[in-house]
Design goal:
Elements lengths: L2 H16 L13 H11 L3 E7 L3 E8 L5 E3 L4 H7 L5 E3 L12 H4 L6 E8 L5 E9 L7 H26 L4 H24 L2 E7 L5 E3 L1 H7 L9 H5 L4 H17 L3 E7 L8 E11 L5 E10 L1 H41 L3 H31 L8 E4 H15 L4 E4 L6 E4 L1 H17 L6 E9 L2 E7 L7 H4 L23 H11 L3 E7 L3 E9 L3
Parallel strand pairs: 13-15
Antiparallel strand pairs: 1-2, 1-6, 2-3, 4-5, 5-6, 7-8, 7-11, 9-10, 10-11, 12-14, 15-16, 16-18, 17-18
């Protein structure tokens, strides 16, 4: 295509865009539900529907970004409309030569991931794009790409319908045709969700009214005409998980963040218990106040059962290993005593190293046993009211005598009463400190702090170690997850400790997280509610 032909084509595209009378004709709310659904289905914090004119890109609907307009020369969606036949995806703009110097990547909002589907109208002109954006590296699955294309078609259907209504107020037959297309688009969207065997739900935060899909009704064992509220649905959740789910919803309403939670449910019709995975995201009214939560539900019972079988096997093997390991340790200690008595320095040194290795193996086996107990529901939480300051002081005395490879500093601690299992909480703190020792150079400082504020007590352990990359932070508390890299090759572990710590804190209705920079160190935190 020569320059003259390209110019004519762009002129025709801009003329087509002008025929929709955007943005003056439409309000954001006309398309917000599609934007929110795109963000929800793709798991991104940002989603938008943009139009691209001669000089700018502007959003007729945007979620997660305050900006409503950007220069076209910097707009990712400008690239999307040039490839009007397929989805345009940038997995990591920071590593892409086309975008790494883009001010939207190098500066705020620091875009890393972008995926956009061109919004091609019935005349073949790409008006703009339906896009999802993330601050971290990402990649859409084939199913997510399909959903994005269906949603993009849905956007165009709405735009076309509104244009026809504006142009032909009296042409009822045209409006009916567009309504049919709109229903077909909604059917395709519904089919995409059903093909994933997902249920959907939404709750009106002002009335507590819960609207659920047929699949969600089946998963909960609820009759077709039976009305339901959020509180009634929470009552079906296993009491062990109910408070956690309620807290996740409350936190989402307060912060606006998306939540993902798994829980065991006792269906209303008395059928077998199920494990469900629920996601949710909050939408706000025109004043910015939380108005509704919408989300999806997936039956994960089979996966949970598979995990339980694996956990049972690990627990059985670990238990069987403990007995011979105890005997081996006893024999080694007996040989140690004989070697020292005989003043055999070489044998004594070799046995010392053997005893240390046996100790490491015992720690790992105990970790697997704790994991097995946790996932089989046999990890007992013995809650009592105790002072977190006392627990911290006891640990300070213990590490003062035991740790000589690093400088460990315990900050002054205020009295903070919590209703929790002190042994399990101590296990979490020990894991934080143990990791700080493991991943930090000899002689560096480890800082332990405990503060209370606004009904919560917060414990943190800060080190000067190798640090963790941003893309690994969210996975640190996953089961068996270990950060890859040359610096990690000689460090033992199976990725159990932080997973167990996270489960312990969540069972206390607390929160756990980490902050880190590569080469500068990490800080691990957890928060527990103060005793009332």
């Amino acid at each position: 295509m020569n320059a003259e032909t390209s110019s004519q084509s762009e002129h025709a595209r801009l003329s087509a865009l002008g025929s929709y009378h955007l943005p003056d004709t439409f309000e954001d709310s006309d398309f917000d539900e599609l934007t929110e659904l795109a963000a929800l289905m793709c798991g991104t914090p940002i989603a938008g529907i943009s139009m691209v004119d001669q000089d700018h890109q502007w959003f007729i609907s945007i979620k997660g970004l305050p900006a409503s307009k950007t220069d076209r020369m910097y707009a990712f969606c400008n690239h999307t409309i040039l490839n009007s036949q397929d989805i345009f995806e940038v997995t990591d703009a920071r590593e892409d030569e086309r975008f790494r110097n883009n001010p939207l990547v190098a500066g705020e909002p620091k875009i890393a991931f972008y995926a956009g589907v061109p919004l091609v109208n019935e005349d073949g002109y790409a008006l703009g794009a339906l896009c999802v954006i993330d601050y971290k590296k990402n990649e859409l699955s084939a199913q997510q790409q399909l959903v994005m294309k269906i949603l993009a078609h849905h956007v165009i259907s709405r735009l076309e319908l509104k244009r026809k209504v504006l142009q032909l107020q009296d042409a009822e037959d045209i409006a009916k045709q567009q309504n049919v297309k709109l229903r077909e688009s909604e059917d395709r969207l519904r089919t995409a969700i059903q093909s994933a065997e997902m249920g959907t739900w939404s709750v009106n935060l002002k009335t507590d009214e819960l609207t659920i899909s047929d699949q969600t009704r089946r998963l909960h064992g609820i009759g077709d005409r039976l009305p339901l509220t959020l509180n009634a649905s929470l009552s079906m959740i296993n009491p062990e998980h109910r408070r956690q789910v309620a807290q996740q919803i409350a936190d989402a309403v307060q912060t606006g963040a998306q939540f993902v939670v798994e829980y065991e449910l006792n269906p209303m019709d008395g059928s077998k218990t199920r494990w469900l995975r629920s996601t949710g995201i909050v939408s706000t009214d025109k004043e910015g106040k939380p108005e509704r939560i919408a989300g999806t539900i997936l039956d994960v019972t089979e996966r949970k059962q598979d995990d339980q079988r694996k956990s049972d096997f690990i627990g059985m093997v670990s238990h069987e290993l403990k007995t011979p390991l105890t005997s081996l340790n006893a024999y080694l200690q007996m040989l140690q005593a004989k070697a020292k008595k005989a003043e055999d320095a070489f044998t004594s040194g070799a046995l010392d190293k053997s005893v240390k290795q046996v100790k490491k193996m015992r720690v790992m086996i105990n970790g697997f046993l704790n994991l097995s107990r946790l996932e089989s529901g046999k990890l007992h939480i013995d809650r009592q009211v105790f002072d977190m300051a006392t627990l911290i002081e006891e640990m300070e005395e213990e590490y003062r005598d035991m740790l000589n490879t690093h400088r460990i500093i315990f900050a002054p601690t205020e009295n903070a009463l919590v209703y929790a299992d002190s042994d399990k909480v101590g296990q979490v703190i020990n894991n934080f400190i143990s990791n700080a020792v493991k991943y930090s150079p000899l002689g560096t400082i480890i800082e332990v702090a405990c503060i209370s504020d606004n009904g919560w007590v917060q414990v943190s352990v800060k080190d000067e170690g190798v640090g963790v990359a941003q893309e690994d932070l969210d996975k640190l508390f996953d089961r068996y997850y270990r950060v890859e890299g040359k610096q990690m090759e000689n460090i033992a572990g199976f990725g159990i400790g932080l997973y167990l710590s996270a489960e312990i804190i969540e069972r206390h209705v607390g929160t756990i997280w980490a902050e880190s920079k590569v080469g500068e160190g990490s800080t691990f935190y957890f928060k527990l509610p103060l005793s009332e």
